[in-house]
Amino acid sequence: MNKPSPALWTLIAMQALSMCAPPMVILIGGLIGTQLAPSPQLATLPLSVLVITTAFSTFPTAMIMQKLGRKKGFLIGNLISIAACGIAIAAIYIQSFVLLLVATGGLGFNMAFVNQFRFAAMERVAPEHQGQAVSWLLLGGIFAAVLGPELGAMGESLLGAPYAGAFLLLAGVLLGVTLLLTFAYQDLPYQAPVKHVVGRSWGSLLQQPVLWLALLAGAISYSVMTLVMTAAPLSMHDMDQHSLHATKTAIQAHILAMFLPSLATSWLIRRFGPERLLMLGLLIYALMIIAGLSGRGVSHYTTSLILLGVGWNFLFVSGTTLLPRAYKDSERFRVQAVNEFLVFGAQALATLGAAWLLFRFNWEVLLYATLPALVVLSATLIWHRRALNATPQGADPA
Predict the structure, then answer these.
(1) What's the average model confidence in pLDDT over 138-142?
(2) Which of 305, 102, 339, 93 is nearest to 216 (CA)?
(3) Neighbours of 397 (CB within 10 A)
(4) Mean pLDDT, residues 364-378
(5) Looking at the chain, which runs of residues are DSSP E strands?
(6) What is the CA radius of gyration of the chain?
(7) How far apart are CA 336 and CA 215, in angstroms?
(8) Domain 6-185+201-390 superfamily per CATH
């Protein structure tokens, strides 16, 4: 696959527009939270609710798409997210923290559907091109990395109430996804649920080291990234008094670093394999910790956030590429749903813990707190490599 097909370009465009919501909430969610929350330690709760809702929506969204098809599922989530933007505007005007949480919950519900875009992309290509398809899809995040925080900054005073205009701008962007879903996206014929085929038990599935590696790569890449990224704007802007412009630029650099490596990730996977790319991602996360511990200037924050983004890309794409090795077609919705729940459940815990770690301790302690997860993932990678080496040539390593 040298370039994306028209169907994959549509998915890339929908990914680019839909993914504007999280970076916008990352930038302004905590800032709005400090104004509306009853306690500063609850400032990141809007983002936490977004992620928690995403986590607990993974099973319902998988079942909805299994029954109705991916197109109808994507459309349901998209329309709910547009309604959530209206609720957020109302919440800011009436100064309701609870209503703001309802709004970010609606955005999180849609993200459970958006996160299935990569599986929809993988289903449209041959197995040997699935890593490349995921990499192409993540390129849509480059657009979101720039536009998402810009929506937050441009909407700061657009409607009078602080940041209400940001959600109006986001609703306009999400309307573009509605149009693409309605007129440009079509389900694949074989996406109907497979009948009378149960698949293997979870006991059998969980005996595969490759499944554990794929699940943990996704969960740990997202949880570490979210923990550091969620705390960074508060640490930079509120605690270290760096400007909103500098904070926005650092977040944009981070999100660009999350997605720009996708230009090379597919080649790296083909050349070296997902296991070696995963190893490189772990090394980059270690360098991220070192950079963050080196100081608290704008350059230190920015360097650490850039390394955080690159490491996330390598780990997440590697884990996503490894996941189909662990399931058969009749098992895909079941395994994909569990993967998404673990990924976004871990991310939810990270968002909840970010403000607590930051305000209870400090930025440095928060960075040290990521080390145990990296050790666990490293140990799982070693287990997987040993299982591969012990598998007779020509046998199924799963």
Answers:
(1) 81
(2) 339
(3) 15
(4) 96
(5) none
(6) 20
(7) 10
(8) MFS general substrate transporter like domains (1.20.1250.20)
